[in-house]
Amino acid sequence: IYSISLTIICLFIILSCQKTELLDEVFFDNSLLNKISLNVAEKKIIISYETTLNEPFIEHVMQTSPSARVLTWLDKNIINFGTVNKIIIDIKKASIIRKEIEGKVEVALAGVTKKQNQYLYELNFEVLFILYNDTDHVLATTKAEVFRTTTSSKLISLNERDRILDNITLNSLIDLSDKSFELLKIHMSEYML
Q: Percentage of residues in the chain with pLDDT exceeding 70?
């Protein structure tokens, strides 16, 4: 009887344990983003955006900030060749903010319905492309802007928050890559390969 009750108790403990949810890691691969070849001798990337450590800005909690992601993409995927002209690429904005929004989700617990607050995450990218000739006269300019939002429950783990931030950054980076390619094709087509 003792061994049967011990077996039942162990079985009950094992079955009552919650399964740990493993979240897939967000993978950043710049080779999947647009590659842009420009007929310029020099490429210079500037980050004029300054990270703010105050609420509602939260990019400082990320392992790799959105501005670092954009910088890596620009460095690896904007390829310059040629002997004349230069392009200045300025990362003007790469911010993520988090705001609390009022009860959009209704949660029913034990027959009682209550409204639960959510977080709204907003990511802004703004990149300015300026093409100069060798005498520093502007030949062409264009500005690529991307704005993306997502929401989450207010009560989430740090891992879930990091995954949300990485997802919104990756999706925004894909949008920025597409938008930059489209705008450069329109405004600097004679300098593109």
A: 87
